[in-house]
Amino acid sequence: MGALEDPTDDRLEITPPKTWATGVPAVAHALQYSLSQTSPRRTMLTLLNINQAKGIDCPGCAWPEPGKRHMNEYCENGAKHINDEATSRRVRREFFEQYTVEELGRKSDYWLNQQGRLTEPMVKRPGSEHYEPIEWDAALSLMAEELRGLGSPDEALFYTSGRLNNEAAFLLQLFARAYGTNNLPDCSNMCHESSGSALMETLGIGKGSVSLDDIHQADLIFVVGQNPGTNHPRMLSALEETKRNGGSVVAVNTLPEAGLMRFKHPQRPRGVVGRGTVIADQFLHIRAGGDLALFQALNSLLLEAEDAAPGAVLDHDFIEKNCSGFEAFAEHARKTSWEDVLAATGLTREEIEEVHERVLKAKSVIVCWAMGVTQQKHGVPTIREIVNFLMLRGNLGKPGAGVCPVRGHSNVQGDRTMGVWEQMPQTFLDVLGREFGFTPPTKHGYDSVNAIRAMRDGKATFFLGVAGNFVRATPDSEVTEQAMRRCRLTAHISTKLNRSHTVCGETALILPTLGRSDRDIQAGGEQFITVEDSMSMVHASRGRLAPASDDLLSEVAIISRLARSTLGHSPEIPWEDFEADYGTVRDRISRVIPGFEDFNERVAGPDGFQLPNPVNSLTFRTPTGKAVFTCNDFEMPRPPEGYLILQSMRSHDQWNTIPYAMNDRYRGIHNGRRVVLVHPEDISALGLSGMQMVDLVSVWHDGCERRAESFRLVPYPTSRGSAAAYYPETNVLVPLDSVADISNCPTSKGIVVRLEPAAWAG
Ligand SMILES: Nc1nc2c(c(=O)[nH]1)N[C@H]1C(S)=C(S)[C@@H](COP(=O)(O)OP(=O)(O)OC[C@H]3O[C@@H](n4cnc5c(=O)[nH]c(N)nc54)[C@H](O)[C@@H]3O)O[C@H]1N2
Ligand SMILES: Nc1nc2c(c(=O)[nH]1)N[C@H]1C(S)=C(S)[C@@H](COP(=O)(O)OP(=O)(O)OC[C@H]3O[C@@H](n4cnc5c(=O)[nH]c(N)nc54)[C@H](O)[C@@H]3O)O[C@H]1N2
Ligand code: SF4
Ligand SMILES: [Mo]
Q1: In 47-179, which ranges are E strands?
Q2: Which residues line ligand 1 (CB under 6 A)?
Q3: Could you give the domains of the chain?
Q4: Residues 652-675: tens digit of each pLDDT
Q5: Per-residue pLDDT, 381
């Protein structure tokens, strides 16, 4: 497909889903996409430097690099992500002369991204139909003036996406708080917020506790609600190693994802010619939202087994020394009803008992999970139940055991560590205020869902997005877009064009920035930035390519200049020094954030350093100082008769809101994205037929029906009662108020829909 066409689904082709992931075709696909974006020379440069010591941290997912690196320490998708950024295509001022903002708004996400890298700052002035060039100083003054004129600092929103580096993230939250607000919504609000909520409450820290070595050493690993073959491809190499060391894997998913079944390692001869490694020893084809019931069942089986053989099953020593609430939990868990469990999970009792047997044999257990869990209404109780499950047998704070929320964006975890959170604890705010001589606001800010409500209700009128694509990542697309359009000023610090640039406040700005792969030279010389992966390893990343344009500023520079322009010169916060030398930012991080002592020295080593996780020394920063057993009421999705639970998920060829191509190879979907996957028996039960065109209609308590039109109904082995379609095309169906309990994470995997034959029958 040529880059200048808008894709259509006319050539949609369906083949049987694959039963293995990542072999030779995967490498070929990576090269094909890279070479469609840039020259063989730049492709070589990026691929030689990706994930190497002193190289570029992969801008893809947050899976960690192993200590011993291969020459090719990246996956097919990592190669696509980096070369999507390193593309040779450019969006210049003539482009914005050619298209009105409204015309751009009618283009697809794919098309917008394919136009290439942004090259100079642009402004859309009130009443104008076009973006036009603007000087950096003028753009930043415009924003500063607007900020200074707001009735209250809480009328401003500062959104962050997880590609932002530590240094810029630290400065952004410092600026927002020095300006006077905690309004720091981020992509994490829509991603692992449920993990953060559940882990903070039960273990006292909202992060995972395992390292890559733990994964290699574990006896048993659960992979729940996660599609690593596509979203964390190198996790498959790690699981392969687990298997080689004698461990086993249980996969829990509503779809039989290829990567969970069999893996062929692209960097090993065996991977190229052999049958590859079976990943899941047992696959649980669970119903949507059934994971809470599954872990409740496993917990009740463990308690029963302990009753039958006292002292042989539970780790009493661990529980007594480290945990609170065991008795109440045990009493509650014993009441679990098999009838409920079987209805919620759609599994058989034998299947669950087989898992239980595996658990009894395993000396160390890790549970990994991702969006299939966090984006369900009962995501937080599900993760709390996972913590109960691990604690029963002392599976915390020892090798090969622990909690593993597998993070999304390469630095989403780091951004949180740096203070990008609308509800940072008071201890952090106190230290920050002391270091920089101001009093940070204490009132919690808006998260992503509340930020949309605030714009909708006219309570927030200034929006700055630092990376990301807010209007496509958020739920209820129409409501969100209307909310954004009510703002007086919207601005985005971005590398590439996306839909958020076309949904403008009265004034709108595009502030183009350096990407991970671009060389970053400041007054103090060549700079590097740092990131933290999903396993709390902090390391440096250095851009290697000539920047996409001479007119780009780094994120650190843009934020520092905006801060100076808004707040004026301040001896306490030396924004000029921060911009000139990022080492000075890291010095301040050392003084404010625990675990970062001597940051500059320690990050200089080839692999960086690991932040301590107190859980591993059995220290729990909860109010009682103990890890907390929780009682979680049984819950399951209960759609009305004739309705399905729809999940909105990623294809193999996309990065979040941005499709790279129209294919989802492992699931057998080619040349089209407007498809909805449903079990053949559900299709018949609904009186529909395979491959017919349907509209997806979501219902909600507000009585409003939300509709996404014209999807091809594809018979697919989904678990019964569930359906799957792609994000962001289906975000229009997620009601703004449909959120996970406690975490406020949109329920992107639990949308209640009915399928209607499409008005246009295609
Ligand atoms: N190539 C690529 N890599 C990425 C991304 C990308 O867009 N493209 N995005 C990054 C980001 S930000 C994130 S957060 C991660 C996301 O990584 P994932 O969480 O793997 O992403 P999703 O595609 O949302 O897939 C959710 C998985 O959960 C399953 N699932 C859905 N509902 C349920 C359920 O109720 N129970 C169970 N047990 N399973 C269920 C789905 O079938 C699917 O396999 O990936 C990161 N990596
Ligand atoms: N329905 C539904 N909705 C979802 C999800 C889902 O599964 N289903 N998943 C949710 C999840 S897990 C997440 S994390 C969010 C993702 O939400 P976001 O993080 O907001 O979205 P992305 O698509 O990752 O953002 C892509 C844009 O980031 C910009 N960008 C890329 N690299 C850089 C960089 O280095 N610097 C700067 N400044 N900009 C850069 C580019 O302009 C690009 O267009 O979406 C959420 N929304
Ligand atoms: S697994 Fe994730 S971080 Fe590693 S190369 Fe692939 S996309 Fe990049
Ligand atoms: Mo994410």
Answers
A1: 90-91, 117-118, 122-124, 132-133, 156-160
A2: 60-61, 77, 191, 224-227, 230-232, 252-255, 257, 286, 288-289, 291, 370-372, 376, 408-409, 647, 649-650, 654-656, 749
A3: 90-188+411-600 (3.40.50.740), 193-405 (3.40.228.10), 639-757 (2.40.40.20)
A4: 999 999 999 999 999 999 999 999
A5: 98
